[in-house]
């Protein structure tokens, strides 16, 4: 469908879409971030739940994906797969808001509104992500506990109250170090993998690319580079995700990340550091594909690309 037939077809929506296109980039990114964050949370929460269950399952017991899914559906019904959606959503929209307002603050005050270079963009991303991550940590703890099925809280406010009164403030921020170790290097790793992978498919300067890609497949090949970069960066940061879950589910057991890492690898072997990596990668792949499809169709609909 071409640009003009699209607008004829949808009539008044054209105002909405061009209105959206005219917004400030920060507001636009915030809206896209919130909408895609909310919908991907709703759609892909089961992957998060299974990941958390796999990270808690003992090495000797079941840590395979299908048996775990069947077990959850049998005992807790299909809705059981969506446990943890509420704290996930409670975290999502303010998280996106904090992220973008921090980014925009840094852009204005630290860079005097200049365009950041690659390194500055990565550092800004790290700072913004870490700041939002720290402030919203309690919801991350509660989300993991909902998903695990080991704790029974009636609602999120009740969970905050119970954790605060029985375990103290520290428990609401449990797992902060591994969370930052997981999230902070992500953008840097992503950028590194992405730029290396792109050299395979895109010509640089006078040199030819390693693989010749037909022009109409360029966009798809760039998307494939982005996706692979995301998967590789997730793989490298996965052990931190496992440590985070263990610390949040067993507040008494572990004092710091070195302690938790040495205990769980001794008891369950090195493989435990990659527990739940499959559902995490599946979720990331689906999310990236969804975001890309959404973005591509939006670009076409506002006439930036035909
Ligand atoms: C999973 O959680 C339960 C309840 O806290 C605990 O008894 C069990 O040891 C945990 N499994 C592992 C491998 O940590
Ligand atoms: C949360 O649960 C507690 C205890 O069950 C209840 O007193 C409180 O009203 C609930 N809060 C909300 C917002 O539903």
UniProtKB/TrEMBL annotation:
| Topological type in the membrane | Multi-pass membrane protein
The organism's superkingdom is given as: Eukaryota
Q: List residue spans for each Solcar repeat.
A: 24-109, 116-200, 217-301
List, in alphabetical order, the Gene Ontology terms for molecular function in this entry: glycine transmembrane transporter activity
- What is catalysed by this protein? glycine(in) = glycine(out)
The entry sums up its family as follows: Belongs to the mitochondrial carrier (TC 2.A.29) family. SLC25A38 subfamily.
What is the recorded function of this protein according to its Swiss-Prot or TrEMBL entry?
Mitochondrial glycine transporter that imports glycine into the mitochondrial matrix. Plays an important role in providing glycine for the first enzymatic step in heme biosynthesis, the condensation of glycine with succinyl-CoA to produce 5-aminolevulinate (ALA) in the miochondrial matrix.
Q: One cellular component GO annotation, for this chain's record? A: mitochondrial inner membrane
* Protein name, as recorded: Mitochondrial glycine transporter
Q: Which PROSITE patterns match?
A: SOLCAR (PS50920)
What keywords does the record list, in alphabetical order?
A: Membrane, Mitochondrion, Mitochondrion inner membrane, Repeat, Transmembrane, Transmembrane helix, Transport
* Species in which this protein is naturally found: Leptotrombidium deliense
Provide the taxonomic classification.
Eukaryota, Metazoa, Ecdysozoa, Arthropoda, Chelicerata
Q: Where in the cell is it found?
A: Membrane; Mitochondrion inner membrane
Question: Where is this protein chiefly located?
Answer: membrane
| Cleaved signal peptide residues | none
Q: Which Pfam families match?
A: Mito_carr
GO biological process terms held by the UniProt record: glycine import into mitochondrion
